[in-house]
Request: fold
Amino acid sequence: MAARVGDEDVPGTSPLPPIPPLSPAASAPVTLDDVREAQKMLSGVARTTVMESSRTLSALAGTPVHLKCENLQRTGSFKVRGAYVRIAGLTEAERAAGVVAASAGNHAQGVALAASLLGVRSTVFMPEGAPLPKVAATREYGAEVRLHGEVVDETLRAAKDWAERTGAVFIHPFDHPDIIAGQGTVGLEILEQCPEVRTIVVGIGGGGLAAGIAVAVKALRPDVRIVGVQAAGAAAYPPSLRAGHPVSIPAPATMADGIKVGRPGDVPFRIIGDLVDEVRTVSEDELSSALLLCLERAKLVVEPAGASPVAALLAAPGSFEGPVVAVLSGGNVDPLLMQRVLRHGMAAAGRYLSLRLRLTDRPGALAALLEVLSAVDANVLDISHVRTDPRLGLTEAEVELHLETMGPEHCAEVGAALREAGYLVMP
Reply:
């Protein structure tokens, strides 16, 4: 079956014309046997991560929803599975030459740990602006880290140049059969832990994880529906699936750096086109809300890319046949990004309100304003004043407020109380 963009039952989406069947020569770049062999290879290396039920998402979706917690995997993401299988498959000569990779985070740590476990020297190129905790973790897992370039594309070129100069083997993050076979072990675990599953929802960047899960699951349970999720600002798969070949998109932009990939991998693309039932996109607001829900309700730290399946469930909860398994692919989120995303998520959920208003600049004016806010139980997080601005009158001051609220209805109540008290609330 060919992957579709959207679903005819979901408003605003449209079905995708079928992709021509794969030729026999290209039909099986990765097989179920490959994934099973990878599972044996990963025994004692990768954790069989837990699967947690989500009462909140189950109530929202009207069907059981389970979370496959790859954020609790070694190195904090699924990436170590594929990296280990890929490096373990190298010849002795290739291992002696070492390996090289390029990544801003998860793949870097996966390669570093896998190479260390196998006694292989690893060099990892990371962007100069990569979060310091991710750089430190990659070094601690045993890799030599080289910072190069401002964006991942520049870092990738540097890693490939290094491979050509030194003979080191370049370990691609998703575009290799061994990588896909390793990631496919997640699918085998899902079927073991939730044999009644009807839908699996998984984030897609380059496509290695979704392709691997699809190979394993469709071979054993062709009735299970597999839904891929991309960030709307970095969605290369919808145009690629329409075209029937990988298409590059310019300047992908999303907070979900784990799935911010401008072009699908050649190997996973054909698998996803043939085996994944549908690809959906989610907004930045939906990603933020999903990350906040995982933290508050599931007590799980998940990065934006890892929260993308939850974002898809929040966006259209009634459109998934259950039981549903959402794959939380990673939990490596920079604390500074987490702070921004949580605030963004609270705003998207109507629980964080920013507003400006004018008041008379006289003693007691601020205290009177705070009394109004206290009466409606609005929690003031931050407040600032502007008194010298050409827009303001001689006796006026402008106040900017950041408030924590209890939801959209409470936001409306706060605004109404301020206007009733005579304050001019600015847009």
About this structure: Residues 7-26 have pLDDT under 50 and may be disordered.
